Amino acid sequence: MSTDRAGILLVDDMEDNLTALEAVLASLNEPLVRARSGEEAMKALLRQPIALVLLDIRMPGMDGFETAAHIKRLDQTRDVPIIFLTGADDDSGYAFRGYATGAADYLTKPFDPWVLRAKVSVFLDLYRKGREVERLRTEIQTLRRRVGDAPQGRGELREQPRTPRSRPRP
């Protein structure tokens, strides 16, 4: 998987929820990566580029909050945005705790497919723009090194002598 086509990591312990997420997001034509636990999610994040994590809060073992804390603790994954997904009947304090853990957004199930697709599209666009900024930064650094390594006089811009322009005759 190239860095231009980073995946969307779907983390939920329920197969039906993963299938529903895949159905909603399939039209985005981006790689969808499944994880059935927080542990699997961490392995997936370290194996391949991920643009966004959709993370269920209530899972056995490492829950969504603990998984998010691990994601935000690692240098190579701390900038990956997380959207928490949870049931509508869950504790109202979950949203606060989710944002405090570093979530970029929080949605309750059942979610509106259009809203989820729109939010995911925004994060994918931000990921792509971030990669473009990094590419341009690298290109600028390379050009600066080339100019700095050039022999004296060759790396400097000089003003070209101006010649008078001829005017059309009436």
Describe it.
The chain has 170 residues and is α/β, with parallel strands linked by helices. It is 45% helix and 16% strand. It has helices at 15-25, 38-47, 64-73, 93-101, 113-149, and strands at residues 7-11, 32-35, 50-56, 82-87, 105-109. A 5-stranded parallel beta sheet has the order 2-1-3-4-5, sandwiched between helices. Helix 1 links the parallel strand 1 and strand 2 (32-35). The radius of gyration is 24 Å and the shape is elongated. The termini are far apart. This is Response regulator. Pfam families: Response_reg (PF00072). The modification 4-aspartylphosphate is found at residue 56.
Could you give a quick summary of the protein structure above?
The chain has 170 residues and is of the alpha/beta class. The protein has helices at 15-25, 38-47, 64-73, 93-101, 113-149; strands at 7-11, 32-35, 50-56, 82-87, 105-109.
